[in-house]
Write a structure and sequence with these properties.
By secondary structure, the chain is α/β, with parallel strands linked by helices. Helices cover 43% and strands 13% of the residues. The chain is built from 39 helices and 26 strands. Strands 12-14-13-16-17-15 form a six-stranded antiparallel beta sheet, sandwiched between helices. The protein has a five-stranded antiparallel beta sheet with strand order 5-6-10-8-9. It has a five-stranded mixed beta sheet with strand order 18-20-19-21-22.
């Protein structure tokens, strides 16, 4: 297969390897692809030679076999909890996430079959309806995938060593470097394995007997694996399993992609505990917090999460954090998130009483009360789960966050934390942080520095040496749950000694004789390997500079399966800045050119990334900046002129759609395709037959609307998008529906003069046309102020969620209250409306704007007044239509809605609704179902 020759240099991956992939579009060798996949949340940076988006396990088998024949290094990439460099490499990187997301619930939820690309949160969402969940519970559940969790033997906040992957995995399908594929659930798995890999099976059996026959080895394994431990290979499997297939499967757990690819796994799940109480207890210092642990553990606490003073200081600047960490100046304080679980009220009461006695007796900054309040628990856990990224995001620009995790016996934890703090001080790591899963003696600590030059690297190495000795002297493990990776590979021998290290080396050699799977990870004789290839980021645009590349944003991004994710967009900006700083102008120019479509054009700028980002980065704002900075002056002038004559522009658009609706669709589409070739596909929308005719003018709505005798209680700004695009089928449209509801409820609103020429200005901000936005902003402010009654200030309503968000940006800063029609209806109209005839079922599509503005509860509330059964697809997400983006780049909506659309078809509801006209268009196109505004259905139900 031919490959491109990017500025990074021509790919050195052998053609025989790439030719295994039959679809050339899944082989990526451009600079932007290699840069985008190079980065992860670790402090290392390795740029692959090529990226393959694998289709299925059979293709991975062929790739590995071809790579082995060609001595081609391969790294398998899904999404782990790893922060030690094991997710990237300099050879071939194989994406085993995108096409590996199947989830099959078995035995009523007691087991689940999962592919490696499904996130833990997605799996748990499927299991929750059955009352079960996965055992591993990493804080990064929203982003980490099953493949990564298996590869790192990830655990988390509550699972400890009892319910981690090693203990709860029942079977797996693994693919060896030779291409051999084994399903360990097969009755003849051992026979198949022995026939296909006789040398490997013989080695496993020999090593098993060698380990079991050495008392010192057995004692050392039992000591280290009595704690959380992901250092080296999971050689406790030699003590636990006789079957070669099961032995190999459990050695693969925690092997970080160095022994095999896990194509599928079956887990035994655990029941969801029905009841819980929690509190965030703030102690005067870290020592007091850690010394309180043994008694809290003894009391039966399910989770005990430790957070030091830096964690609390950063948390005080974040939205929605627990009240317990607010209202005081942080000095040395530390906190424990304490939670108890139970299945009965009696059990919960006993736990609560025991825990509360200990908390009441503790020296706390303020009393801490165990509470079952869901909102309180959610705030505490949201803060804790985003803690690493939040703290790392607060680092100085241009520095790198380096996170390590260790485990020691709980009795040693207080002294260990004190000793670590002393080390931080000795080596000048002033902003270091300690937090973690204190119940298990598992803590994370973070250093921030620019790890560049002899002085910085020698300091880090000296610190590392003392830290390693400290943990081993405490009887601990150098890695507890984030995997050995590259960071601790040089220290594996030091933790286990020569004998067990030799066992690990022989295991690796037998499974991967050419050392082609993730070389340098877990096993590395280079004692300085942990100091090589450390990521050095340049400062970039302020909107994204604090990104820690954690990837939490990726699952919610509509373009994730089409081009780039928010994390990758930021990574590309950093690569451009680095190339420019190093004088590599060829690479910088190439990345700038390639990011045009991949990063800028196909970003929906929907802001969904900010809902998942622990440091509140909205990558859409970065893309809007890039659009402003590269805006075509001719187009900018045209959009400014459109803003000045917006009333005429919207009517012209409406008329054009109505005319097009009466013409043969192929004729109209052909015309727009020609125009797209001339003007560009990011300028000229493509017409499709599923677009509606134009909508009704807004000017006739001017004045009082609703009940004729009622005093107006709000200003109503009907969105221009509902005027430009007509309603679905015979529906009245949201404006007419809202008017009907107002009359029935006896409520009135006021539509200002000049409404036809008003807009929320989102089209200009999204496209980067600042002058047009200024024109519209000034007009909206003027018209809204002029419409206000003397001596009063009415709130402002809009009837499209994205437009409400746009009006909020304009009017909110001027002191006006802006309300979406959903919120207004739920609060002021629903209880006044007559009881209606409900339909049987309704599927909803929440929008990115309704999510960010907190409107989804009101959306569901209104829907429940319409239908007996209200459903939201399990994998709901942004539709990617994004104003006109879905007409400029239809492939964005097609990609964004692919999974959701299939779920909508399976739900097969009687009706389908949303709260934004262009989103309704996008979902109608994706599903073949007619989507309309939920108020149209409410008006019909209460008629």
């Amino acid at each position: 297969m031919a490959v491109s020759t990017p500025a990074l240099g021509e790919s050195t991956v052998a053609p025989e390897v790439l030719n295994v992939v039959t679809d050339a579009s899944r082989v990526r060798t451009r600079s932007i692809d290699r840069v985008a996949y190079a980065s992860d949340a670790s402090h290392y940076l390795f740029t692959p030679q090529a990226v393959v988006i694998a289709a299925d396990a059979k293709e991975v088998s062929g790739l590995l076999a071809a790579a082995a024949r060609n001595h081609q290094p391969v790294t398998l990439r899904s999404g782990g909890t790893s922060l030690a460099g094991q997710a990237s490499g300099e050879g071939l990187l194989v994406d085993v996430r995108k096409n590996f997301r199947q989830i099959t619930v078995l035995d009523g939820g007691r087991r689940v079959r999962v592919q490696p690309g499904a996130t833990i949160r997605q799996v748990n969402a499927r299991l929750a309806r059955h009352g079960y969940k996965l055992g591993p519970d990493p804080a990064s559940e929203a982003a980490c995938t099953v493949g990564g969790v298996i590869a790192n033997n990830s655990s988390g906040m509550a699972c400890g060593t009892e319910f981690n992957t090693y203990r709860t995995l029942e079977s797996m399908v693994f693919v060896l470097p030779s291409g051999t594929m084994i399903d360990t659930a097969a009755p003849d798995a051992d026979a198949q394995f022995a026939a296909a890999e006789p040398h490997l099976v013989a080695t496993l059996q020999r090593l098993r007997e060698r380990v079991r026959g050495n008392r010192a080895s057995v004692a050392l394994i039992e000591k280290h694996f009595g704690l959380k431990n992901t250092m080296g290979y999971g050689i406790n499997a030699f003590l636990d399993f006789d079957s070669p297939a099961q032995l190999m499967a459990h050695l693969i757990i925690g092997s970080e992609g160095t022994l095999a690819f896990v194509a599928e796994a079956v887990f035994r799940t655990i029941p969801i505990r029905k009841l819980a109480v929690a509190t965030l207890a703030v102690f005067d210092n870290l020592d007091q917090a850690t010394r309180a642990l043994p008694e809290l553990v003894e009391s039966g606490a399910a989770t005990l999460e430790l957070m030091d003073s830096t964690s609390l200081r950063v948390g005080q600047g974040l939205p929605g954090v627990p009240e317990a960490i607010l209202g005081f100046e942080v000095s040395d304080q530390a906190a424990l998130l304490v939670e108890y679980h139970a299945d009965s009220e009696q059990e919960l009461a006993a736990h609560t009483a025991a825990g509360q006695r200990l908390l009441d007796a503790a020296a706390l900054r303020a009393p801490a009360r165990l509470s079952a309040d869901a909102a309180t628990r959610q705030a505490a856990w949201k803060f804790r789960k985003g803690l690493y990224a939040s703290v790392a995001g607060a680092r100085a620009s241009g520095t790198t966050a380096l996170l390590e995790d260790v485990a020691v016996p709980v009795a040693e934890l207080a002294d260990t934390c004190q000793n670590l703090q002393e080390l931080f001080g000795s080596y000048g790591y002033a902003d270091s942080v300690i937090f973690g899963h204190a119940k298990d003696g598992n803590i994370h600590f973070m250093l921030t520095d620019r790890f560049e030059g002899d002085t910085a690297l020698k300091r880090y190495n000296a610190f590392n040496e003392q830290m390693v000795q400290l943990i081993l002297d405490k009887g601990g493990n150098l890695k507890a749950e984030h995997g050995t990776g590259r960071a601790m590979a040089p220290f594996v021998r030091r933790q286990y000694g020569d004998e067990l290290y030799s066992v690990m080396c022989e295991l690796k050699a037998a499974a991967d004789p050419r050392n082609m799977l993730n070389p340098g990870v877990i096993i590395d004789e280079d004692h300085a390997a942990h100091m090589r290839n450390i990521k050095l980021n340049e400062t970039i645009e302020v909107e994204a500079d604090r990104c820690v590349e954690c990837g939490y944003c990726e699952p919610v991004c509509p373009s994730k399966d089409l081009t780039l994710t928010p994390r990758q967009r930021i990574v590309v900006r950093r690569a451009i800045a680095k190339a420019q700083a190093e004088g590599n102008h060829e690479l910088a120019r190439e990345l700038e050119r390639e990011q045009g479509y991949d990063s800028v054009d196909t970003c929906a700028v929907d802001g969904m990334c900010v809902t998942a980002c622990p440091v509140q980065i909205n990558t859409g704002l970065l893309v809007k900046r890039l659009r402003r900075e590269t805006a075509n002056p001719v187009l900018a002038a045209g959009f400014k002129a459109a803003a000045r004559g917006w009333g005429a522009a919207t009517r012209a658009g409406s008329v054009a759609l109505s005319v097009a609706d009466k013409l043969p669709a192929p004729l109209v589409r052909g015309t727009t395709e020609v125009a797209r070739k001339v003007l560009g596909d990011d300028v000229m929308p493509r017409y499709d037959a599923d677009l509606p005719a134009g909508g009704a003018a807004r000017k006739p709505l001017t004045g009082r609307l609703g009940a004729p005798d009622a005093e107006p209680v709000a200003l109503y700004l009907p969105a221009c998008v509902n005027s430009m695009f007509g309603s679905c089928g015979d529906g009245p449209g949201v404006g007419a529906a809202f008017e009907q509801l107002l009359r029935r409820a006896g409520v009135a609103v006021l539509v200002p003069e000049g409404i036809e020429s008003m807009c929320c200005a989102t089209p200009w901000t999204s496209k980067g046309y600042a002058q047009g936005h200024e024109v519209m902003e000034a007009r909206v402010l003027h018209r809204v102020r002029a419409a206000q009654p003397a001596g009063g200030r009415l709130p402002v309503i809009s009837d499209a969620s994205s437009c409400t968000e746009g009006f909020e940006h304009i009017l909110g800063q001027a002191g006006f209250q802006v309300i979406d029609v959903l919120g207004f209806t739920a609060e002021h109209l629903l209880h006044r409306l007559p009881a209606g005839q409900k339909i049987q079922s309704l599927t909803l599509h929440p929008t990115c704007s309704s999510t960010q503005m907190g409107l989804n509860d009101q959306l569901v509330q209104i829907a429940q007044a319409v239908a007996h059964t209200v459903q939201v697809p399990q994998d709901w997400g942004c539709c990617g239509f994004a104003g006109d983006r879905g007409m400029l780049h239809p492939e964005l909506t097609a990609s964004a809605t692919a999974v959701q659309a299939e779920q909508v078809r399976q739900l097969d509801s009687q009706a389908h609704a949303s709260c934004n006209r262009t989103c309704e268009l996008g979902m109608s196109r994706a599903t073949g179902k007619d989507y309309q505004h939920v108020l149209e259905l409410l008006a019909a139900a209460t008629a």
